[in-house]
Amino acid sequence: MSKETSSLSTPAVRPYIPASAQIPELSFRALLMGVILGMVFGASSLYLVLKVGLTVSASIPVAVIAITLFRLFNKMGGKDSTILENSITQTAGSAGESLAFGLGVTMPAILILGFDLEISRVMLVGVLGGLLGILMMIPMRRTMIVEQHNELKFPEGTACAAVLMAAATPASREAAGETAQPGMQDDAGKRAAIIFGGFGIGLLYKIFNVAFKGWKDTPEVAFGAPLSGGSLGAEVSPELLGVGYIIGPRIASVMAAGGVMSYLLLIPMIKFFGDALSVPVSPGTKLIHDMAPHDIRSAYILYIGAGAVAAGGLVSLVRAMPTIWRSLSAGLAGMGKGAAATISAPLRTDQDIPMKWVVIGCLAIIAVITMATPLHMNLLGALLILVFGFLFATVSSRLTGEIGSSSNPISGMTVATLLFTCLIFLIMGWTGGQYYVTALSVGAIVCIASSNAGTTSQDLKTGYLVGSTPKYQQYAILAGALSSALILGPILLKLNDAGTVYVPAAQVAPNLSTDVSKLTETGQLQGPQAEQDKGSYKIWQKLDTVGGPAGKYFVDNAGKVVYLVDPGINGAYNKRPDGSEVKKYDAPKAVLMSYIIKGILDRQLPWSLVLFGVMIALVLEMAGIPSLAFAVGVYLPLSSSAPLFVGGMIRWLVDRRNNKLEHNKHLNEEEKQAAGDRSSGVLLASGYIAGGALAGIVIAFTAGILTNFDKAIGDWSTKSNPFFEGSSSDALSLIPYALIILALYWVAREKKTA
To answer: Alpha helix locations (H) across 467-606?
Structure first.
C-alpha cells in the first residue's frame, strides 16, 4: 500500500553515488568510447543474428571493456574515469546490439518476399525504430525503475551496476562515502575479484566450448515411445546460468514450464496424432512422421508461442496501465511549467529529458515514417507503429525487468505486430505486393523500438543503482542508437552482397522473359562474378513462381532473363558458376516474418495455432499464473529456458541455506530478498554473464573471418573429440557445465559467523 501512495520522486534505494555528489559524468570521451563500442558490438551482433537468430546483451561487456580501457589510459598518464562516466559509456554502447537484433530479424525478410534491400530503407528503419523506442521508454522510467524496483529486477542491469561498483575508482568511492567506513576498501576489492573472476571463467568457458569446439554446447536427449517426439536439451552456457541465478527460482521455473509444455506435451501430441497421416499438415511442408522435434517446433509451435506472447503481453499491459498512467500523468504535468519548475527542481538522479521534447520527438518520428518513400508507408501504418510501438515498448521493458534482455522474446512481439497489422491490411483489402513492404516496415520499426526500449530500461536500472543522471543516460543512448543505425545498414548490405550468387537463367528459369518497358531500375554484378561480366541490366522483381522462382532477376534490353540474383541472406545457391563456395546466412527469424506476411495477405496463415496460444495464456491467467513468462517459455527453445531453470534452482538452494544462518534469521522476507540480491552469488553470476556475452565477439570472429580455422577445428572435434561428437558427448558435455555450477553454489554460500 505504501508503494502505491509514495511520491514518484522518492527513491526506493540509496544510489551508490548520492544525488548531491557532483563528479564527471557526460564527458566527451565517455560518450565517444560508448559510441565506438556500440558500433563494434552492433556489427558482431548483426552477424550472430543472421547466423543463428540470437544475440547477447552488450551492456556488461561494454562496461567491462570501458573500465579496462580507461584504466590503461590512466596508467599511461591520463585521468581515470568515474563510475558515472563508465555508466554513460555502457549506456551508449548497449544500443548497437539491440538495433542489430531488430534489423537482423526483420530486414532480410524483404529478400524472401522478392524485394531488394535498399540502404535508405534499412537505415531509416534502424534510426527511426531505435529513437522511437528510447523516447517511449522515458515516461515509464519512474514507474518501472523506481516504483517497481523490488518487483522488476532487470538482471543484466543489476549485474552491470554490480560490475561498475566493484570497479569504482578511489574518487568514485570517496563520492559514494565508502572511504569513511572501515573495511570498505577490502570489501570492494573482494567484490571486484569475484566479478572479474566470474568474467574470466565465463569468457574462457564459452570460447573453449563454442569457438574451439571443446564440448557440445547444447546436449540433448530425444525420447521414444510412449513419448515419441519429446526431447530435453539445455544450452550449457555461463551467461544463461547467470541470468537464471539473478532472476531467481520463480520466474525461471515459470519460463521452463512453458518450454516443458512445448517439448514434452505439445510436440509429442502433434507427433502422436499426426504420425499416421499421409499428407503434410499446413503450415508444415513435410509429413509429421518425417519431422524431428525441431521441425515440429518451427512448423507449428512457433505460431502457438507467438499467440501466447501476444495475449500475455496484452494482459501485462492492461495490468500495468494504472501505474503507467500515473507515470505519464506526472510527466505531462511537468510540461510547460517553465520557471515554476526551477523552484522545486527534482534531484539530479530524478531528472529526465523534458516530456515536451519526448512528445515532439515521437510526433516528428511518426511524421517522417509517414512521408518516407522507401518504407511504402501510409497514415494507417504510421498509426499502427505508434500503437504497437507503445504497447510492445511497455511489454518489452517489463519483460526485461522480469527475465532479462537475453531471454526477452522481441521476435515474438514482432510476430504479434505482424499478425495484427496484416490482419488489418487484409480487412482493408490491401493485399498487393507493395503492402508486403509496408507491413514489414511496421513490424521492423516496432521490433527495433521494443528491443531498444528493453535495453534502455536495463541501462536506466543500472544508472538508478549507481546514481547516474537519467537525462544524461537518455542523451547517451540516443547518440549511441543513431550512430549504430547509420553503420549497421551498410554492414547488412555488405554481408548480403558478399554471399550473393548470380545464377545463370538457364539453370533456374530457361526461356523466361518479361516486358522490359515496365522496368526502370538498372544494376550490375558485384563481387568475383563482376570480373567476367561488367554489363548493366534491367532489374525485375518477380513476385510469383510462374516460369521460375520468385526473386530478383537481371534482364537484358530485349526482356530476356540473364541471371537470378540469389541473395547472400537466405539464398539457396552455395556455389558460383565457376564452382567456388559461397558463405550464406540463414537469418531464421526473418524467414518466420516473411511467412507471416505472405501467409496472412495471401490468406494462408494458420490462425488456429495462433488462437491455441492465446487460449493457453488466458487459461494461465485464470489460474493465477503470470502468462507472459510462461508464453516466453513456450516460444523459446527449451534449451534456452532450461539453463535459466538451473540457475534459478541454484539460487533457491543458496538462499534456503543462507536464510537459516544465525545472522539472517531475524530478517523479514523483503530483507532476505535484498540480502540475496547483494550476495557473492549475484556478483559471480554477473561475471558469468559478462564473460559469456563478450565471448560472442570471439566466436563471431573465428566463425566469420577465420573460416578455415573454424572448419578445421570443427572437423577435428567431430572425428576425435568425444566431448563434442559421439554416443557419450551429451553426457560428457555436462561435466564442465557442472564445474561452473558448483563454483557458483560454492561462492554464493555465506560463511557462518561466530
So the answer is: 470-498, 505-508, 588-601
